[in-house]
């Protein structure tokens, strides 16, 4: 019997965007507090919906029994009042997913809940494991049977294997962290404990909060804590394992100490602007990006506009420091979801106009600075430029609040292969001509590493520089575990 790697078609998401990875959440409610963890998780996942729109799920623990509900779709598509009312317990974890490994399917939705010889557990994971293929191969050769095609299942198996030879679930997580390589923020729920862990480089965000009712909360971003009325306590440290057991919080460390390498693109694009990550405000970081853009790429213009949504804070920053007035130049249709089906290659421009439309009175007859967070393939930005010109702009100057994407990401950001990137093997002038602007300026790598004012970490900028914080494969294969039997 021969197995062949099967290339599956991509889902109909916007092909010219850097997609979010995932969001995780966990809550422990003290005994006797009349709060439904499932309903709290539902609220938190709404706050984290921007991190993934393919699938979502919630797992609850009730007297040692773990129940999980998950499916493909947005949070309000997958859950309703009846489902949430039926998910009783004192702990819950949740997940919103955008797939960077494995196709979008119910089997790949998280949390992953399993039963093993020493009990049961559920896991939600944000990030990507560089050595997942090697781990999975080892486990399959030992008789392991996998139901999903994501790297998260290999992570779960690694924890379970260690649980069989360690005295506690937290000890199993610590030992598993010595085997898994890559980016991960995880929440783990056992019959008695809620655990949060972050990889030794802190590549993906994870924070902790508390409420007056005694609830302990973990989330990918602080905006989820705000949604639940919780007080931000602190970020989980790189390599740290935090355990909540009967309401008491303990901290362990995996013993691996690496230079921190938080994803700088969290500040540029992924995170919500009202979040604070590793001590730095996301909104302030984006405005700082606009300031550095203004310093590095000044231009004489009449108005600055931002591409909704993540380009707007940088545009405000550019306008503030340049003295050029800021204006609303693009209106976003909030009712067009990311799964909007494109009406054929020859009608792509129509789909852009459905999602975004130019405000003529802002740009007509003016020299326009248009600020966006990134350029991937360049097709969408070229259509936006045409949109602004068609609305009467005299000049269009493009400013990008990130350096050019020249290299793939192996840590949970869905960046295409090099040959699909506009910046690969092209000069800025060549890119300018392709997208049809009067001038084009990218944020420098040096500035990108300075925008997160007050951040208590250093950053991974490998997608811009090609300098990775750890050994990586030669190429990215999103569907590496998809196979067909021949």
UniProtKB/TrEMBL annotation:
[4Fe-4S] cluster binds at residues 263, 409, 460, 463. The keyword ATP-binding does not apply. Binds 1 Mg(2+) ion per subunit. Residues 22-247 form the Glutamine amidotransferase type-2 domain. Pathway: Purine metabolism; IMP biosynthesis via de novo pathway; N(1)-(5-phospho-D-ribosyl)glycinamide from 5-phospho-alpha-D-ribose 1-diphosphate: step 1/2. It catalyses: 5-phospho-beta-D-ribosylamine + L-glutamate + diphosphate = 5-phospho-alpha-D-ribose 1-diphosphate + L-glutamine + H2O. PROSITE patterns: GATASE_TYPE_2. It is an enzyme of class 2 (transferase). One of its GO terms (molecular function) is magnesium ion binding. Its EC number is 2.4.2.14. Its cofactor is Mg(2+); [4Fe-4S] cluster. Gene3D superfamilies: 3.40.50.2020, Glutamine Phosphoribosylpyrophosphate, subunit 1, domain 1. Keywords: 4Fe-4S, Glutamine amidotransferase, Glycosyltransferase, Iron, Iron-sulfur, Magnesium, Metal-binding, Purine biosynthesis, Transferase. CDD domains: GPATase_N, PRTases_typeI. Pfam families: GATase_6, Pribosyltran. In the C-terminal section; belongs to the purine/pyrimidine phosphoribosyltransferase family. Catalyzes the formation of phosphoribosylamine from phosphoribosylpyrophosphate (PRPP) and glutamine. NCBIfam families: purF. This is Amidophosphoribosyltransferase. It comes from Butyricicoccus pullicaecorum 1.2. The lineage of its organism: Bacteria, Bacillati, Bacillota, Clostridia, Eubacteriales.
